[in-house]
Design goal:
It is built from five helices and five strands. The longest helix is centred in the middle third of the chain and has 18 residues.
Length: 170
């Protein structure tokens, strides 16, 4: 199974960071490609994107200032299949990406993604007080997986905080 290519650039407004690609994403080579994943609907409903994009459009979001990467590159059925060694290596690789590209905001798509990266035991939704990488604001958002039990309106509301911040900060 192939890794899904990162979409990175300098000057990004937001770098979205997931656990790792789904098997479906690995098959088609695009981020958040599982049809049960709500990522693209959440971005649109929260105001982060002007229209509903599809996984095949993931590279197009660079034009909006949005990039994509994961803490672990290997596609799996679920995050529970990621090994401790993969997290250890992924943490270092992700930190290097953040230090090199310096997006304004690193948006962790799931608390677990953030706690694995930061090595902090807890996180709250939204912006975090002390970033791991200086000068990169960290925002923790709910996972977009269809398995998440949080109501969709609540998830969209948290992403809307990010959208409002970007709109107000210019």
């Amino acid at each position: 199974m192939n890794e899904v290519m990162d979409h990175l650039d300098y000057g990004l407004s937001v770098l979205f960071i997931g656990f790792n690609p789904s098997l479906r994403s690995g098959e088609v080579g695009h981020h958040y490609a599982n049809p049960r994943n709500n990522f693209w609907r959440i971005l649109h409903r929260s105001g982060l994107t002007p229209r509903l994009y599809d996984a095949s459009d993931d590279g197009e979001l660079l034009k909006l200032g949005y990039g994509f990467t994961n803490i672990v590159a290997r596609p799996t059925r679920g995050a529970e299949d990621i090994t401790r060694d993969e997290y250890e290596q992924g943490r270092e690789i992700l930190r290097a990406k953040l230090e090199q590209y310096r997006p304004r905001i690193a948006c962790f798509v799931g608390k677990g993604v953030y706690t694995e990266f930061s090595r902090r035991s807890q996180a709250h939704w939204g912006f975090q007080a002390e970033p791991v990488v200086k000068e990169v604001r960290e925002f923790v958002a709910p996972s977009s997986s269809g398995l998440v039990r949080m109501p969709m309106d609540d998830i969209v509301g948290i992403y809307r905080q990010l959208s409002d911040f970007i709109e107000n900060e210019g």
